[in-house]
Amino acid sequence: MRKEMYRHAFDVVISRAVFKLQQFLSMGTFFLSPGGIMIAMKGPNIKGEELKDAATTSEKTGLACVGWHDVKLPIIGNLRKIMIYKKL
User: Fold this and answer.
1) N or C: which end of the chain has fewer CB within 10 A?
2) pTM for the complete prediction?
């Protein structure tokens, strides 16, 4: 449930591999303040189709992908991709 008191209330919104990227962008933008960033952890081999859908969603919601980082998780050593979007 989206409560109006949370609309544009946060400078950072983070997801840890819970949603498809386009779903996260679509839902998270409600909470994100202007100029805020969204950070999504994805698997190391995010599919082209998911990236394409995310690009369409980010354009519609006023977000821009400003970067991504490949990281290795401590202890277990699994790889992840951290995607970063900024609200324009």
Assistant:
1) N
2) 0.90
Q: Is 24 left (phi over 0), alpha (psi -120 to 50) or beta?
A: alpha
Q: What is the pLDDT of residues 2-46, one digit of tens each?
A: 689 999 999 999 998 788 999 999 999 999 999 999 999 999 888
Q: Which residue's structure tokens are 């699994």? A: 78
- Phi-psi sector, 75: left (phi>0), alpha (psi -120 to 50), beta: left
83 vs 65: CA distance, rounded Å: 7
Give the residue carrying structure tokens 């050593």: 77
- The SS3 of residue 14 is strand
Q: Using an 8 Å Cβ cutoff, are 88 and 63 in contact?
A: yes
C-alpha gyration radius of the chain: 13
In the DSSP assignment, the letter for residue 78 is: -
What is the DSSP code (8-state) at residue 56? H
